[in-house]
Predict the structure.
Amino acid sequence: MGNKLSLNINIKEPRWDQGTFMGRAKHFFMVTDPRNVLLSSETLEEARVITENYRAGITKPGLSEDELWRAKYIYDSAFHPDTGEKMFVIGRMSAQVPVNMSITGCMLTFYRTTPAVVFWQWVNQSFNAVVNYTNRSGDAPMTVNQLGAAYVSATTGAVVTALGLKSLASRLPPIASRFVPFAAVAAANCINIPFMRQRELKYGIPVMDENGNRLGESPNAAKQAIMQVVVSRIGMAVPAMAIPPVIMNALEKKAFMKRFPILNAPVQVGLVGLCLVFATPLCCALFPQKSSMSVSGLEEDLQERIRETSPNTTTVYFNKGL
């Protein structure tokens, strides 16, 4: 009996203090761990059962605290925090590094021709659309028509932006054209994320008090959440799309790269992957996952409702999405 796991461990919250950047970074290094993509359905299901049973006051015999936290982070990496549904595999944050390194590496390698720019920007924004939808905040579903319209708007905007920047870069030094993919991705994130989460901007996302009691839905909270996600996503792209072009520009002048040009793409992909391993969790950690805002920043009608139902509440909390 003395070895039985305590039921007082709060696994509704991350293991590390989310009030500090370092605590959030440790949390997101676990959530975005690329190895989680390789886990079997049986492992994910076992983690879900352990996590949900523990929340219900049931512990698996012999379960240690470290094993509980491991199960909780496997659960968090694969199941949506608001709906509890298993997320589409390439939309999970643990798939960000392997999928993004391949796409970004190709964008940085094949940037010289218009068809290549259009194709890889389309692939990238299609991937981003899946990620943005999978990691949306809230539990309200989007209809197929809404999802289709959002996808077409987001990808069209991104491709048009990329082509415009490519045309502009053609009048600049060669090194400048290498940064077209980054500028396009940064601009496209400002288009793609709001479009894919437009339902939240219209109807709001759930806001809660400090005890997790749902108080209503707020479009203002959605605006703050989406703005934070846009900043984080652009931040993720900076090292992966700004550092490799400089290195590759120098490497391509070397004799061995001229002799083996086939190495260009794999070297570029490897450099991008190295950057993303660190940039993805560190930029996710820029803002707390459980974001907050003052009640005074909410819509007037929601403020009035909160004053009536929960007069002592001055701050509300919400899942910002990823």
Observations:
- The two ends are 41 Å apart (CA to CA).
- The chain has a mean pLDDT of 82.
